[in-house]
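Re: beginner question about structure tokens

> Can someone show what the tokenized structure looks like for a real chain? I only ever see the sequence side.

Sure, here's an example I had lying around. Input first:
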Amino acid sequence: MKDYEKLSREHFNGQAAVYDERNTVYYSREGKISCNDIASLLRSVFFEKLLDVGCGTGYLIDLLAREKQCGFYGLDLSEKMIEAAKNKKIPGAVFVVGTADHLPYGSESFDVVTCSQSFHHYPYQEKAMREAFRVLKRGGLYVLSDTGIGGVGAMIDNHILFKLTRSGDCRTQNRRSIAKMMKKTGFEVVDCRQVRGFIYTVVGKKP
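And the corresponding structure tokens:
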């Protein structure tokens, strides 16, 4: 198997300095759509601690911190993305380098775990979802927004840039397959919808 994490880290390290400014399908446009949708969804949700997995430059946490005062945690495998997030000096936010399938947090630590436009990059998707389930408190929400099968950005990332095939380790999902995976992991699916084009958001609740 290719060292996909290494390739992904190098790729996003190279994008970090201009990621927020370049509002295109290849940079932050899809990410912003997903983050804005998640922020809107969480506006009416009470939570004290939130973890954003694959946080990139901290765009979602920055949005949320403008309206809520609580503990925000962001994790990304790109050192440069984490550096960009830290430079925003978001109140109450802690950013660390790490991977989605080995979260450096204790079980039942968070009220909400979010994941926007990064799940299709994960080489161990089911393991990453189990980790999200583990670190969530009972009753906590897992909010996953990504680009589904047919989405240009996901196709470029996984099948052209890194020359993966559909049988490769990183799978481009759709909202129905994500909902199915959530149920298999133990979540109760409470929302499953198309946001715009191929972009979807699925919300799971830990019983």
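Each token stands for a local structural state, so reading them left to right follows the chain. Residues 162-168 have pLDDT under 50 and may be disordered.
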